[in-house]
């Protein structure tokens, strides 16, 4: 049976590929399994800095980190002082976008689905503010409260009603980087978004992106992220499910917001079977 | 009573502004009236080339022309050979976008609301193909027929169901320049657009724009448009309503597709009262 694919961290047992040798630590496309046969290292990055938790290479130092970096810096073209809104803000990508935006001198508000997540954003991750979208019957009114002068940048992770409310609150020349629309993935028919006229009125740019088109920027990003981490300027929160057996429940939990921070499935510890999958 | 504003062509009767003098022909923001008192020339462009129909300065040589130019060349970043779809394609702006795209070596299809308009696009304006959206019960199927490999550039004038169908047919890195959404202007609540996930899957960029942000490009555009016209490489079709009394009906006709080409209201002929308003 074909294993489910995922982006994981692993130790090379044996390799015929000239770039990899037994004992190398790597991150990239692996399977939800204890041992993977990888025929195409596409992508597979060698891990040189192992003085940080290896699981971080499924998060801040891996694909979600590069996603946040590419989406925020490359797609959103942010400027100091701009007003930034991040949905799914305590997730693997959102927590980093918000912290990058704060480091750039932006005003940053995040939305999340529980009081604990909101506390995390406000008290640990330096967000200027955060709110629980489940407690807001009127998302438009909530956004008007947090962004009385409007939103310059929206980092879109959820879609649907949130996007519709955001469109009403965009500022002139606002930018929306579309990373994902998790609220829409499991619907038979996606929700209709009605407020697209704002795109003309406010000259808004909406742009979708996918991280694999930015893999060439990974070395530059890694240097930046490691420096920020070592200086204590960025923190990263993970939610680790122990053992492969708990993987399916952890995956399902992403869609109900059960996770707190980046969801990781720990297949085995380094030195044992050496693999941690997202 | 305040007159309705519009972009018109006029002759200056008298002026205290240093840039304008009696007898000058101008185009810019005027009123739906025989004589206008213009206190802010914002914008008001002097007409130097009067060897073309003066009404063209309400169209190809004026605001709609610059709109087509800015939206197509600046917002869509077109490349030779790309597949371009234009809605409201026989209108003031659409007919130019399609012809600019053809001149660039693109494959161009337009949609319009009558057989006569479709004929005009195919037989007079060099569009590769065109269809009557009112005869297409399934817009997605129609677009798949005309764009079997998908759409690189969509010049959006209508919104609603057409945008929803276009989103399903965009190619990777497609661009949508949002000029207007005429199908939505008079609805109590705009239609919902459901297929926005394509923005992520296909890394689509959607961008709204407004012509007044491109007025500094007008001299460059005018040179280009005059040259194309004189070489016979571009034609421009107008629908002229004679006399101000017919203006309101002509305006209403825009929303039912009554016009064929750029709708102009002729207030008076040059040499008489000297004013033609859009």
Automatic annotation (TrEMBL), chains A, B:
Residues 92-225 form the Alcohol dehydrogenase-like C-terminal domain. Residues 2-39 form the Oxidoreductase N-terminal domain. InterPro entries: ADH-like_C, ADH_N_2, GroES-like_sf, MDR_fam, NAD(P)-bd_dom_sf. It comes from the Eukaryota. Gene3D superfamilies: Medium-chain alcohol dehydrogenases, catalytic domain (3.90.180.10), NAD(P)-binding Rossmann-like Domain (3.40.50.720). The keyword Disulfide bond does not apply. The lineage of its organism: Eukaryota, Viridiplantae, Streptophyta, Embryophyta, Tracheophyta. SUPFAM superfamilies: GroES-like, NAD(P)-binding Rossmann-fold domains. This is Enoyl reductase (ER) domain-containing protein. Keywords: Oxidoreductase. The keyword Membrane does not apply.
């Amino acid at each position: 049976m074909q294993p489910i694919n995922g982006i994981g961290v692993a130790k090379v047992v044996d390799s015929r590929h000239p770039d990899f040798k037994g004992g190398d630590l790597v991150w990239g496309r692996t399977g939800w399994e204890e041992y993977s046969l990888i025929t195409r290292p596409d992508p597979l990055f060698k891990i040189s800095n192992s003085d940080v938790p290896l699981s971080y290479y499924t998060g801040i130092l891996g694909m979600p980190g590069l996603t946040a970096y590419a989406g925020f810096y490359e797609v959103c073209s942010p400027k100091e002082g701009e007003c930034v809104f991040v949905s799914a803000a305590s997730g693997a990508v959102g927590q980093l976008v918000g912290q990058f935006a704060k480091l750039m001198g932006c005003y940053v508000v995040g939305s999340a689905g529980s009081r604990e997540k909101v506390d995390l954003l406000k008290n640990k991750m330096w967000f200027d503010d955060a709110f629980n979208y489940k407690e807001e019957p009127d998302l438009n009114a909530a956004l008007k409260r947090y962004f009385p002068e409007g939103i310059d940048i929206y980092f879109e992770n959820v879609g649907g009603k949130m996007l519709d409310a955001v469109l009403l609150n965009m500022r002139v020349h606002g930018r929306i980087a579309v990373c994902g629309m998790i609220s829409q993935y499991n619907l038979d028919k996606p929700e209709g978004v009605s407020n697209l006229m704002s795109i003309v009125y406010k000259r808004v740019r909406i742009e979708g992106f996918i991280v694999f088109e930015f893999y060439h920027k990974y070395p530059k990003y890694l240097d930046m992220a490691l420096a920020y981490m070592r200086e204590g300027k960025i923190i990263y929160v993970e939610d680790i499910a122990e053992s492969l057996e708990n993987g399916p429940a952890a995956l399902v939990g992403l869609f109900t917001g059960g996770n707190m921070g980046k969801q990781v499935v720990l297949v085995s510890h380094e030195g044992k079977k050496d693999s941690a999958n997202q």
